[in-house]
Amino acid sequence: MNIRVIPDTLTRLARLGAITEFEPAGDAPLSERLTLQSRPAPDPDLLPCVTHVTTPQGLKPVMKTMITTACEKNCYYCPFRAGRNQMHRETFSPDELAAAFDKLVRAGVVEGIFLSSGIIKGGAAVQDRIIDTGEIIRRRYGYRGYIHLKIMPGAEYDQIVRAMQIADRVSVNLEAPTPERLHALAPRKDFGDDLLLRLEWAQRIRQTNPERRWASTVTQFVVGAVGDTDLELLSLSARLYRQLGLKRAYYSGFSPVIDTPFENLPPTDPQRERRLYQASFLLRDYGWDVEELPFQGEGNLRLDVDPKRAWADAHLLTAPVEIMRADREVLLRVPGIGPQGVERLLRARRQGVIRDLATLNRIGVQANRAAPYILLDGHRPPVQLPLF
Ligand code: SF4
Hints:
Rossmann fold, alpha/beta
């Protein structure tokens, strides 16, 4: 007699886990991920379902999973695309996912969930199942922690309202910076109607009832597969930060997947991802305009130097900033001085004259990085050249 053993949900999730790395959850950028991977695994079998993401409450281990890995769309870079017949597909019900998540929370394995999906029978149908899962987690299991829900292409306005009530964060992944680039990446997605409109709705929902607590919004770009430039990616990011209240743009370097139309394209240099994050933080947290970023002729940033330093080399080496007199915006242009450091610096200079790098270090400024670009009480500080 043949006995068919049906694997439980956690086993199926663990099996699915590694493949969900292709479904970015707002994961920590590569540089952060490398340090996090060395954390001990609470349960090695389940490790692939757990990712570390930046949440409004800091970095957390989060269960990352999908309602289904089947999909009717054919995005050229994606392992879940329609027609990849060798790919094992899994589909979960909202009840199954919510119960599995509850088990992991009780076992202390995760402190949140990121829930996405492939698309079957249209984005709105899948969105219902994503929302149902979130509702069950909140209501049946009384979970108050971090929930991140994906907004599917084609989701309806009322669905986005509900998702933003349930979740702490929602993501609408634009994937590409222009309609043309999106067409080259994902020919069955419409940049304006399917995606950008949903980000506009999210902002409208927040503005219609600003007193209420709504989920924040993030987006993600696939970088480097179809000729997209840093200028395109960062111009759109700046617009989304300023006009649509976007909390964070994620830049995911393209990585080829076998048995997809892009399998022979080269992967994107991880350094490009890093430079995009640095430039994106200048736009979001430092008040920079995109025109001020030091793009090269073809619209990309240099890979060998961070954009703030490249700008400072061009503008501040010959016109250093006087630390005792410069205003906040100018101080923030100096490498080694960030939003927190500048506040401490402004407080410290009200107490007395800052004359040396050691004092700057004590305040929390990275004095050696700042040294080539500043004056301390009218004098250039000694610059320590790097050994290598
Ligand atoms: S919609 Fe595109 S990116 Fe999303 S799962 Fe389907 S094929 Fe992949």
